[in-house]
Design brief:
single chain, six-stranded mixed sheet, six-stranded antiparallel sheet, disordered N terminus, globular, about 30% helix, 17 strands, alpha+beta
């Protein structure tokens, strides 16, 4: 069976979109180090995975599309086989996605901010039984894209994230209270000269107070993982999500539910950047928050301000998403000084592409939500390699009138 073509090989309809895709391939990925696979990290992902083998918590998922299965070879995820639509697999729900480089169909190495779930086992498939047995016995293990996250947790809610024990990765980059050890203040100040210049909510006109309060409530509703979260805010039927993504691109209509499904399974997949949809996911969260709050995001994000909040408008790039927030009047804050509350939009480093953007899910920024783990991730239990590449808090954004507490 042939290898599925990677999204970057999809043919763009215009030269502009082609150039955008070239940027999107690394939009959520920081530059690779000399040790791209993290083989020399002090708390390696491989070690993390092996230590979890005895405490697997399996979840059965039925695939809704053909998906590539990969295996880890010398720190690189190599293509192994196409897993047909309708296959049943089990995944360890206690394990976070890992972020190794993978080799695409053209033979080039790429990075995925979405990541890959390890410990995959095939339960049922149209693959023949001998092939299933061979794959399940691979000593190098099987990995599948975390775009399968939508079906990972059943039921109407995401449970609250439980704080884990701080590992070597967390302690290398954060103090125990969640304050980052590394500062990006100088480079962030160059991009956002008005950083840390908040305004009191009471100083704003009454209509503005109401607007920003409602919007912040909606962002915290979808992002706070210190308590159970309504899953439909992020996850809806895949077919419906794709249609909604098409509708938004054509007419600008915004939904109130299914932000992850629409952004990742819809817009990002259709336009060839499903491996790096972080800024598109955050953009969709923001568009829907405005909608649920009773406002249109077009009031603050539009062509006259140069910050159109859409893939076509460039907001799916981390550099643009962070800049667009500032143009819309959102306040940039330095996590060296201030605590990112649940609902804040966080940026890895200084918020440029290639990079990563994600949402604070509470617990002083130690919980986060992103395209790889919409159910929520505890940075205390995240590997050092992954934190280094994706989760070094450098700047975060809040709507006017919501000034964060100092450390």
């Amino acid at each position: 069976m042939p290898v599925l073509k990677d999204p970057e090989e999809l043919i763009m309809k215009t030269l502009i979109l082609t150039l955008m895709i070239a940027l999107m391939t690394t939009a959520c990925a920081p530059p690779m180090s000399a040790d791209p696979a993290g083989l020399n990290e002090s708390s390696s992902t491989v070690a993390d995975e092996n230590s979890e083998q005895d405490i697997l918590q399996r979840k059965t998922i039925k695939t809704s599309s053909d998906m590539n299965l990969r295996t880890l070879m010398v720190g690189i995820l190599e293509y192994e086989v196409v897993l047909p639509l309708g296959s049943e697999i089990s995944i360890d729900t206690a394990t976070q996605p890992v972020n190794y480089q993978f080799r695409n169909a053209s033979g080039n190495l790429e990075f995925s901010s979405t990541g890959f779930y390890p410990h995959v086992r095939i339960l049922k498939s149209s693959l023949n039984s001998a092939e299933i047995s061979r794959l399940n016995q691979l000593s190098t293990g099987l990995y599948i894209s975390a775009t399968i996250s939508g079906g990972l947790i059943t039921g109407p809610t995401y449970p609250a994230v439980k704080a884990g024990t701080a590992g070597d990765g967390f302690t290398a980059y954060f103090n125990s209270n969640g304050k980052p050890k590394k500062s990006f203040s100088a480079s962030v100040l160059k991009r956002f000269p008005n950083i840390n210049k908040g305004v009191s909510l009471s100083s704003l006109p009454g209509a503005a107070q109401t607007k920003w309060t409602r919007l912040m409530q909606e962002l915290q509703k979808v992002g706070d993982r210190t308590k159970a979260t309504e899953k439909s805010l992020l996850i809806i039927d895949r077919v419906a999500a794709v249609q909604h993504a098409k509708d938004f691109a054509k007419t600008g209509v915004v939904q109130k539910l299914g932000a992850w499904s629409i952004a990742v399974e819809g817009t990002a997949t259709m336009n060839g950047f499903a491996n790096v949809p972080c800024a598109e996911f955050m953009s969709e969260i923001l568009r829907q928050a405005y909608q649920r709050a009773g406002y249109s995001h077009f009031e603050d994000f539009n062509s006259s301000k140069g910050n159109v909040l859409s893939y076509e408008g460039g907001s799916a790039l981390v550099t643009n998403f962070s800049a667009y927030l500032a143009k819309a009047g959102w306040i940039a804050w330095d996590p060296q000084v201030y605590i990112p509350p649940a609902g804040a939009f966080l940026m890895h480093a200084n918020g440029v592409s290639p990079g990563h953007t994600y949402m604070s899910a509470g617990d002083s920024g130690r919980f986060i939500v992103d395209n790889g783990m919409p159910q929520g991730r505890d940075l205390r239990t995240t590997s050092q390699n992954t934190i280094e590449m994706m989760y070094q808090h450098g700047v975060f954004f809040l709507p006017p009138g919501f000034n964060p507490k100092k450390w």
